[in-house]
Specification:
heterodimer; A: 2 domains; 4-stranded antiparallel β-sheet; 4 helices; 9 strands; B: 3-stranded parallel β-sheet; 2 helices
Amino acid sequence: MTFAPVRRLSPHSQGVQPPLSCASFPDTGAICGLGGERPVFHVAYDGNFLELRWLLKSEENTVKLGILVNTDRHLEHIVGITQAASEKGHEVIIFSMDEGTHLVENQRFTDLSELDGVSMSLCRHSAEEHTIDVEEIPEGITRGSQFNNAMMSHEADRIIVL
Amino acid sequence: MRILHILNDGPREDARQIIAAHATQHEVEVVDMSADNISYAELVDKIEDHDQVICW
């Protein structure tokens, strides 16, 4: 038996455990490595190269959840959803704008930036329009722009608006 | 397609009409955030499991 050259092999340093077994999918010709019941790598062959690709964390059974905060009325829901998603190992991206920037004056909101997998930013222009002292915002929250909103829209698997 | 509608401030007429229209062709689920005792863990699972999420 001959093997095609491996084009790419990402190391275990990405936090992926070695596979315990493999599963093949005859319909597609794909082979998937399994860590328990969770796929941890894919193998593909294009006729020239065999590609072994370890899944990044975002490609495992986790999602990137975006939360667009444009009001200050739903703090309880934002906190509850963010904590639940973080506990499940999901990534959460929170972007605040308009009236939602008022929430950075509440420590329950700003403390979310310290949870695992949570990143937070806000529209500095919106904050200044709502007379928020942006210099008082904790370092862990990016004082950004609508570009951060665009990045969240690009990166997130699901986005909710609160 | 599975569509999750999240009612941030409770039921509203425009949402009801859109949800009814979606329900004719899709599998639709509605979460009323104005209700008591929301399970955020279950809500996160629903957000993950549905193909589309719409917030009102």
